[in-house]
């Protein structure tokens, strides 16, 4: 799975691709190559070794998140959209997915993303894509005050008590004779973090005005666990959100205690 920044980098690369008349500057967009090679996220691997790649994609005009499940062997993309059905909405989603379907083959071809796949048609021909029809839909996208309050509190707790120092902070403090074990959690809190109504965990925004972000997180989790997405419903969003906050808090605590990194993006 990629993080949500991947789709942003992909959009910027596509804009350059169109402006240049089909030329690609891989040095300028080397971060995309790092994703496919499995070098950007520490928990990732080369896409040629993966059966599916899960990509959260932001449709900017709609301010809406969808999930794309890429099957490299079949050269296909399945779209999971929690708000499908309106012609104007579906048209914009289709346009966004068309961009991904056209650009990904160039990226995969350039860094060996097709390698190791048997009976696969290599090349830069666009991938096929289709909308998954049976996934549950969000009803109104409104998140209640209990959920928002819990998210704010948990976000504040996470940032103030779990945030780990950067490599630069570690080097600076060790240079001044401080051991890592002597740092209190309050001393490693970064002043740049603020609690906002629009909260971000793992680069996916949890907006109090809609649930599409939580839908794609849970679609991904269920699909990766080989479970049906039929239980990813609006009625369960509050539970899912509370569960995710607890999981992220405990994950952050473990990162702090074991002093580990999960990506290479400082």
TrEMBL record:
Domain Ubiquitin-like protease family profile: residue ranges: 1-223
BP term (GO), one: proteolysis
GO MF annotation list: deSUMOylase activity
Keywords attached to this entry: Hydrolase, Protease, Thiol protease
Gene Ontology cellular component list: nucleus
Pfam families: Peptidase_C48 (PF02902)
Highest taxon, organism lineage: Eukaryota
Keyword field contains Hydrolase: yes
Presence of the UniProt keyword Protease in the record: yes
Similarity section: Belongs to the peptidase C48 family.
Name this protein carries in UniProt: Ulp1 protease family, C-terminal catalytic domain containing protein
Species assigned in the record: Trema orientale
